[in-house]
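Worked Example 4.2. Consider the chain below.
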Amino acid sequence: MSQPPKSQEEINALIAKKRAEVLARMASMNLPTGGGIGLPRPPLGAQPAKPIDQASLQETIAASRARIEAKLRSRNIGGNATAMPSPNLTQQQQQQQQSKISAHSQELHPMLRDDYKPTGPQAKRAKLSTMPRISSIKANQRKEPPRQLKIEHDVPASFTDPEKNPYYDVHMVGGRRKAEPQMRKHAKQFHFVRPGQFVEQAERKRTEEKMEQLKAEIAERASKARLDEEVLDVVNVIQPPEPPAVEWWDAPFLSNGSDSYDPAEYALDGPDSLVSIYVQHPVPIDPPEPIRAMSEAPSHLILTRKERKKIRRQRRIEQQREHREKVMLGLAQPEKPKLRMSNFMHIMATQAVPDPTKLEAEVRKQMNERLEKHVAQNQARKLTKEQRREKAETKAQEAEQRDGLLCAVFRVHKLSHPQHRYKVSINADQMNLSGCALACPQMSVVVVEGAAKFVKAYKKLMLRRIDWTDSQPKLDVSAGQTTPDNGISRDEVDYSDNSCHLIWQGEIERRRFTNFRLRKCPTEIQAKNWLAGAGCDTYWQLAKQHNPSESITALDSLA
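Applying the procedure from the previous section yields the following structure tokens:
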């Protein structure tokens, strides 16, 4: 380690030495070492610079050096600099301070020494500055091995003993689990086995074993008889077994060891015989379904939506399996792939496509053909207006035969509003209900009869959907009428107390009316006589004696 310079002469010598080294290195690098060092080269076509006078340059350098030394002396950095003594210190303390400052000023900075070695963050920056600025490849970089956790203590024997430690997993590898994360396994999906699949496999295996046994027997017989295998007929070898002399269900009624149906061998008498004077009556067991006549159609089992979907899915799977087997056997042609804009590139990936535009046009053509075929099938299945009406009538008749006929009688306080009359009449016709609606000034009676399903819907209409207190002026649907039958203007009728009540409902054997009619009766006698013609005069009496507080509307929640 070299000693720091102690005087100004040594500092000047060191500077001259460093300058000589720099000039020698520049000469080795073929760089100019004249007075124009570090100056930019003038551009082409510019006026040449005036030559620099060496004497004036040396004077400028000397003046700058003197100015720097004076500034260093003023800051107590130079060798001859002296610090100003503090007036409050003693002479001895001033001498010690002056000696410390002079010693400190004579020392060089550690970074200017020849044996300087950077440490800490400076060492990192020096290392980065010396690294070559070239592109590196990720594969050529040296990867440090992953840090492994160090086991400070060994696992005690009591930890790995299942008797002492019931929570220890015996499947652990080497007493410890692996540190790397385990791959999560996806849960296996359910694959339901087709009914009868294992039975078919077992039968196929039994058949193969039986054929192997038959081949072995045939080969053995052929070797004994010295016959070729081609001469043997396998069909003649497989023969059904002969029936036994006595069936197993007849053996208890014959003597012991009997092998014939000789009447002398019958064991019908005696204490050991199964035949006696007593009659065995089996315990009666009710059938799971009621016994029906042979002429009746079999009852259909009602399935849930989930069960119907499952049966349909199984049926379609079976059909697809049969079609695939036919294709594999060559009995049917395979279906062409359904090309779409989203999958035609995936399907045609293995084929050379010289004209992609033409292929796209062909795909769009197939898509339009499938769409037209779908629309045509829907139109073919669509019912006409007459067929829809027949279907509705057939459905209503089936509901009547299944659930029976139901009759309901309603009492309406006022049925003079044309909108109310229209709703009562049109809904009865649409639901295939028969009956009548008698509108009188005192009260109105509505009678409907039909299938239970439609009567229930009509009850909901009369008791919930129609707002009987609505008195807004509406256009009358009946031609030529602008006022109700009682001669009172519609605007003067008060519907605030209007209401509808269900006064009776029950099952009937047959219909009393052929269709639904809306009849206006100015007097009570006409309405009662009109109902008497259909045998329903008691309905008017019930409506007349009806008490709103005892109505069955609240008791029957539209059942």
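The two ends are 114 Å apart (CA to CA). The longest helix spans residues 197-225. Compare this with Example 4.1 before moving on.
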